[in-house]
Amino acid sequence: MKKVLKFGLLALLVLALAVAAAGCGGSEPPKEEAKEPGGDQGQTGKKLVVGSDTTFAPFEFTDAATGKYIGFDVELIEAVAKEAGYELDFRSMAFDGLIPALQTSQIDAAISSITITDERKQVVNFTDPYYKSGLIVAVQAKNDDIKSFDDLKGKKIAVQSGTTGAKMAEKIPEAKITYFTNTDQALMELKNGAVDAVINDYPVSAYFVKQGNDDVKLVGDILSAEEYGIAVPKDKTEVLENLNAALKTLKENGEYATIYKKWFGEEPK
């Protein structure tokens, strides 16, 4: 009888231990759900996923020495995100993919020298302008035939896809337009003599020439006054308000001017 009792107690003990083991890690822990852009990031605040075409010096480009992204836009969005209390997630992508990425909520914002236009405002919102720019024509330094925009009729023109420079080129009668994914490719096509001109944002083309590309020159007047803004999806009004508030603070406390002078050597316009 004692043996039977001992055996029964032993069986119950083994069963209890097995149940306890199953409840203490025997199954996989619940997986963390993937967070949407702009989702809560706990102790670090809210994440801000920002897209940019990092081939547009001096606004956004890769430092050859460190491999890090640098430029006016990069430093500005870092300062804006910090001021607004966001954890910045900066991502490089093609310029013509930025607005589609905003529309599908793959990113929360885009900063990439994006000109504020009525057409773009139909599909995305923009912050207050943060930079005034314009378009310019670049040609080979030895070219004396093209002196302004008016001389581009029937010429071979290189542009970056999806830009206001491309839109301008499309208005030129009989122009033969070649589209590139970034401005560096368009300007190299000009240096190689494959095209007659490049229509691009003035500060970017001017920076390119200053980097030792003295076989390229800028001709004519700046074609149009343009303003850059940070683009935000239509449904992210809180993000837009936060970015505008941060941008306003940076302009008031002098940090915006400091970043501007670092990259352009002059006071903000």
Automatic annotation (TrEMBL):
Residues 47-266 form the Ionotropic glutamate receptor C-terminal domain. GO terms for molecular function: ligand-gated monoatomic ion channel activity. Keywords: Signal. It comes from the Bacteria. Its main location: other. InterPro entries: Iontro_rcpt_C (IPR001320), SBP_3_CS (IPR018313), Solute-binding_3/MltF_N (IPR001638). The keyword Signal applies. Residues 29-38 have a biased composition (Basic and acidic residues). One of its GO terms (cellular component) is cell envelope. Pfam families: SBP_bac_3. Residues 26-46 are annotated as: Disordered. It is found in: Cell envelope. The keyword Nucleotide-binding does not apply. Residues 1-21 form the signal peptide. Gene3D superfamilies: Periplasmic binding protein-like II. Residues 47-267 form the Solute-binding protein family 3/N-terminal domain. Belongs to the bacterial solute-binding protein 3 family. This is Extracellular solute-binding protein family 3. It comes from Desulforamulus ruminis (strain ATCC 23193 / DSM 2154 / NCIMB 8452 / DL).
